[in-house]
Amino acid sequence: xxxxxxxxxxxxxxxxxxxxxxxxxxxxxxxxxxxxxxxxxxxxxxxxxxxxxxxxxxxxxxxxxxxxxxxxxxxxxxxxxxxxxxxxxxxxxxxxxxxxxxxxxxxxxxxxxxxxxxxxxxxxxxxxxxxxxxxxxxxxxxxxxxxxxxxxxxxxxxxxxxxxxxxxxxxxxxxxxxxxxxxxxxxxxxxxxxx
Amino acid sequence: xxxxxxxxxxxxxxxxxxxxxxxxxxxxxxxxxxxxxxxxxxxxxxxxxxxxxxxxxxxxxxxxxxxxxxxxxxxxxxxxxxxxxxxxxxxxxxxxxxxxxxxxxxxxxxxxxxxxxxxxxxxxxxxxxxxxxxxxxxxxxxxxxxxxxxxxxxxxxxxxxxxxxxxxxxxxxxxxxxxxxxxxxxxxxxxxxxxxxxxxxxxxxxxxxxxxxxxxxxxxxxxxxxxxxxxxxxxxxxxxxxxxxxxxxxxxxxxxxxxxxxxxxxxxxxxxxxxxxxxxxxxxxxxxxxxxxxxxxxxxxxxxxxxxxxxxxxxxxxxxxxxxxxxxxxxxxxx
Lengths: 195, 335
Hints:
- By secondary structure, chain A is mostly helical.
- Helices cover 64% and strands 1% of the residues of chain A.
- Chain B folds into 3 domains: 3-77, Immunoglobulins (Immunoglobulin-like); 84-167, Immunoglobulins (Immunoglobulin-like, Sandwich); 179-270, Sandwich (Immunoglobulin-like).
- Chain B is 8% helix and 42% strand.
- The chains are: A mainly alpha, B mainly beta.
- Chain B: Its main location: membrane.
């Protein structure tokens, strides 16, 4: 891990982390706006409870403070790759429903998809810096939705966006942890103090 | 036999004198004072439409022997109304606390039971020793979309009531106000005030979970606040203060990404720097100095020699250090 520990690598890591934190913040803000648009255009109740959706990576983490930097990056990357596919699926469904009409919802979905893709790439860069390199993308895509009713698809979309909003917050936190000075990227940051 | 009896305000209460027959001759006392026979029905004590003032110790004595046959402590009170519950995280991501109170008193002891459910998991809420109406929950998960459901049940001898709060992890995050707010004038700057503060000590990890701040300030003579939002750092320089006016300044904090703003900090007061007015004594000393004998010439310490500002009034002459030394030297020569 000598390359990962070099001063230039450390500077590059901090720079990537800072930019990543800004990206995550912008992404979160846009996802929150997209959620409002989605709820309104899909005729949903904003407070509707959505059960855990199959294939959607949950942002919830136990012992989050004990994760290593590499674990954080890998979990984030897996999540954003999944969201990239899920959002593309939602966009496709949107277009199927409304034809080629360039709706505000469609545009907002496309914009967030772009940011998710950019963030995934950003994470890959950070992993390359860790001399680990990003893992190859898994071949299996999201589960097919043809068996779901239109309403179930809408609820699923709500679940996807809510989870993405949580991930955007978590990612900013993960990158802040990563940008802290530490002995090595694979060592765990100090856990949160107990009460 | 002594025990406690709880009755609702407005109730009609009948007390039996233990195992004594209805027609036994007895005397009832309330807090040691005999109760009038008009309140008796045989040996039974009848209290109609009881109120809070009738709480106390009631004793029944056998008529002739004055043996104590029965004693009870009557507590008049009310069943609990729906409690008021609030939950907040001022120590994110460590945990959150919930606190509660009753909107109106019951006047009798109450017990509280709180349950915290997150998804399918029941979490432990550790009760604080002080204050007693508060408990803490440690986060077992972060960044969860699953809501927390907190149910508080209050029970007393006359009834029970409950309330439920449901919230997201992020929604209850509210830091304590910033601490150690200090505001100081900036020397030679009549329109500036330097403000600094510290993160609230209850916020466990400001490096990983940075706070942003909101500063508000106004001169005491005006009602309208100026606001500044600051995304990093724990200091700020106000550059548009009105010269010479005393200001009141406060700061609030919020997690950079989630939750709500804290309450405002304790207010601090400060007045921007102002130039000191010229002192009359300085002028007089300059005049005396210039008219004194050169042999004893010594510039006064408060006078700025060669400073234009130190020269005031007609007739005063500014004397440079160099000239003064020369004159002093001549003075020595001529003594």
